[in-house]
Amino acid sequence: MPRDRMVPTLLSLLALGGCGGERAETPATAAAPPAEYAYVTNEDSHDLTIIDTRTDSVVATIPVGRRPRGVKVSPDGKTVFVALSGSPKCPPTMPDEECAKLASDKTQDGIAVLDVATHRVTRVLPAGSDPEAFDLGPNAATIVVSNEDAGQASIVEVATGQVLATVPVGKEPEGVTIHPDGASAWITAETDHDVTVIDARTGMRMTRIEVGKRPRGIAFLPDGSRAYVTNETGGTVSVIDVPSRSVLATISLPAGAKPMGIVAAPDGKRVYVSTGRGRRIFALDPATDSVIASVEAGQRPWGIALSRDGTRLYAANGPSNDVSVIDTRTMGVVKTIPAGKTPWGVAIGARRED
User: What is the pLDDT of residues 250-304, one digit of tens each?
Assistant: First the structure.
C-alpha cells in the first residue's frame, strides 16, 4: 500500500509569507524574455490566440475547429497541435446520462496541425473519440491522446496520420503526460481516481496507480524521478515516486482549491498548480513537498504553461476570457491579456517561423 503523507500547508504559507500574491498587477523586474509564442485554445470561440511573450500582446487569432482544448508545440517551434472535439460541452452540474442525450458530431474530432509560419491548419489527424488532452512523443513523431468519453487512449503517428494503438485506460481519462525518457505515457482517470501507465510506443498497459479524487493533470520533475498529479475534488496533489510507482506524499492545498493544471519549472525547483474555481496558482517546493507561495489569477485558471527560462507563467482563465501573466519570482500578476471565448489550454514554443 502506498504511504500517503498529508503535508500541512497553511503554516508554511504563513511562515514564508507565500500567500501575499494578489491579482493586482505588479511592475515587471525581469530581463528581456526569450523569443517565444504562447498559444491559447479558446473552447467556445473555436479558435487559437497567439501571444508574443516579448511584449505580452496578441499577434493573431486563428480558427482551428470545434471545441479546441489540449495544445502542444513541436520541439522546433514550427508546428502547433490542437485537440478538437465534436462532443457536446456539458457543465459539471449536468448528469452524465443527460449529457449523453446531447448531439455529437464525431466528424469534428481530431488533432489539428497548425503551421506557425502560415497560420493555417494543414490537416486534422484522427485521434479517437472526444480527444481532450494529449502529449507529444520524442521529436513529435507520435501523439498519445486521452479519449474521455470512450475510456481509452490513442497513439497516433504524426507522419502518416495512422492510429497505431487504442488502449483501454481508466474511466473518463483526462491528463496525458509522457515521461521525460519518452518510454511511458501516464494518463489520469477522473472517475476511477487513478493513473494508468502505458508503453508510449506500443500502448501496452504497464501499471495502475491509485491517487486522490478526480485526478486531472500530471507533471514530471525534469529528471523524471517524480510525478505530481492534481486531484480536483480532493483538493490535493499526489506525489509519485516513478521508479517504484508508489505515492510518496499527498499535498493538501488550502480550502476551496480545485487543483487542475500543473507544470514543473525547468530547473525542477518549483511545481505550479492552477486551481480552477479556486482562482489561485500555487507554487510547490519539491524539496519539501509543501506550498510556498500563491497568487490570484483570473476566473477559473485552468491550463498553465511556463516560459523557457521559467520566469513567466501563463494561465488560461475560462470565464474571464483572458490570460494572466505571472512573474514566478515575485508571484505577482504583471499583465492580463484578453483572449477568445473561454480559454482552456496554453502551450509555449520557441519563435521560429523561417
Answer: 999 999 999 999 999 999 999 999 999 999 999 999 999 999 999 999 999 999 9
| Amino acid letter for position 321 | N
Q: 221, 76, 224, 218: which is closest to 158 by C-alpha? A: 76
Position 92 scores a pLDDT of 65
Place of cell 505580452: 56
Domains of the chain in sequence order? 6-350 (2.130.10.10)
List pLDDT tens digits, range 194-240: 999 999 999 999 999 999 999 999 999 999 999 999 999 999 999 99
